[in-house]
Amino acid sequence: MNFSKYVNIPYKYKGRDFNGCDCWGLVKLIFKKEKGITLPDFWYTDFWEEENFIKNNIRNVNIIKVDYPFKIFDVLLFYNKKRNIVSHMGLIIEDDKFIHTYLKNASRVDRLDKYWISRLYQGVRYSG
């Protein structure tokens, strides 16, 4: 699968299309375009509330927690130690590579390296 069309989408808070996306908007856009799945926006807000997203069913959106090795379309949740919350996410696109929009920059692909692993909170998989 070719994810290159999702690289360099400008950052836009609460953006949900090719004109601009935040980290959740990018995940949502890719799920819609590549899998035909419309993830609701309220799923996004529940990720910030640890007790809610740990459950296997978040407001009727089924997810399961997954561990390494991750598969394509697994969502990675990253922890902000300073703020003590999950505050970022990305989407696995191959082996140890994920796509995300980070620090108000355009979307990009990064390797799941030591930096990102140290911030990784959980992997989750949409289960339908």
Description:
This protein has 128 residues and is an alpha+beta fold. It has a single domain, classed as endopeptidase fold (from Nostoc punctiforme) (Alpha-Beta Complex), CATH 3.90.1720.10. The protein is 23% helix and 34% strand. The protein is built from 4 helices and 9 strands, in the order E-E-H-H-H-E-E-E-E-E-E-H-E. The protein is globular. It starts with 15 loop residues before the first strand and ends with a strand. About 5% of the residues have low confidence.
Question: Would you spell out the secondary-structure blueprint of this structure?
Answer:
Blueprint: E1 16-17, E2 20-21, H1 23-35, H2 41-47, H3 50-54, E3 57-58, E4 61-66, E5 75-80, E6 85-94, E7 97-100, E8 108-111, H4 114-117, E9 120-126
Antiparallel strand pairs: 1-2, 3-4, 4-9, 5-6, 5-9, 6-7, 7-8
CATH superfamily: endopeptidase domain like (from Nostoc punctiforme)
Helix content: 10-25%
Write down the secondary-structure element order. Answer: EEHHHEEEEEEHE
- Tell me about the biggest sheet? 7 strands, antiparallel
Rounded Rg: 13 Å
Trace the largest sheet across and list its strands.
3-4-9-5-6-7-8
